[in-house]
Specification:
By secondary structure, this protein is α/β, with parallel strands linked by helices. Helices cover 33% and strands 20% of the residues. The strands form two sheets. An eight-stranded mixed β-sheet has the order 2-1-5-4-3-6-7-10. A two-stranded antiparallel ribbon has the order 8-9. Strand 8 and strand 9 form a beta hairpin. The two termini are 26 Å apart. It comes from Photorhabdus thracensis.
Length: 214
């Protein structure tokens, strides 16, 4: 049986809860460097695949906030199952020479806000709508408590408009954001960024072309 290498050992420690996050630099080297998240802007995603829209959004968010940018990938998917080690390494390889990544096991932003205290998270309007849906929190009180926790951890959101439900939506089009929570969500102007294609559509196109995203 092969002994795990340094990067694999870091990943094992993250899976086992010994680390909150792993920092992966532009060269693909894993480390547990302490980072000042108050000076960071984080673009979270599954990056399946990483595409030009992600890269453009990262650049615009960096310009708007004057903060250091990081991509963030969670090792858990939507149903809280851990993504396979091979799949994690495959997705990470996409970022080589393209930017720093942090890897965590935090799926929800309330969890991320404890790890990355002071950070600004970059999201799309479709995800913003979900974040503000009380059904995911057991009701209005749960939603309010979650968003106030994110605020108390000194985090906020930068929101890019997205095309969904046959319409382009910016932050101000999302009717489910309560007035008292609106300050947490800053809009990226449509004039700076607009992307109408989704990662799912890009995956399907790549599949038809016989491409992989390594």
């Amino acid at each position: 049986m092969n002994m795990p290498n340094k990067n694999e050992r870091y990943l094992i420690d993250l899976i086992n809860g010994k680390l909150n996050y792993i920092h992966i630099d532009r060269n693909g080297d894993f480390n547990n460097t302490k980072i000042d998240w108050k000076n960071s802007v984080i673009l979270s995603g599954s990056f399946n695949p990483l595409h030009k829209g992600h890269e453009e959004l990262k650049e615009i968010a960096t310009t708007m906030t004057k903060r250091k940018p990081y991509y963030e990938l969670s090792i858990k998917n939507a149903v809280k199952l851990t993504i396979s080690t091979d799949e994690i390494f495959k997705r990470i390889r996409q970022f080589k020479e393209k930017g720093d990544i942090v890897l965590s096991d935090a799926k929800f932003f309330i969890e991320k806000s404890y790890i990355y205290q002071g950070a600004i998270f970059v999201i799309g309007a479709d995800l913003c709508q979900e974040i503000n849906n009380p059904i995911y929190y057991g009701g209005e009180e749960g939603l309010k408590k979650s968003l106030m926790t994110i605020k108390n951890n000194d985090c906020g959101f930068l929101v890019a408009g997205r095309f969904f439900n046959n319409k382009y939506h910016a932050v101000d089009d999302l009717l489910n954001i309560r007035r008292e929570h609106r300050f947490l969500f800053e809009s990226i102007p449509e004039s700076l960024f607009r992307l109408d294609i989704s990662s799912t559509e890009i995956r399907l196109m790549n599949k038809e072309k016989g491409m992989d995203y390594e």
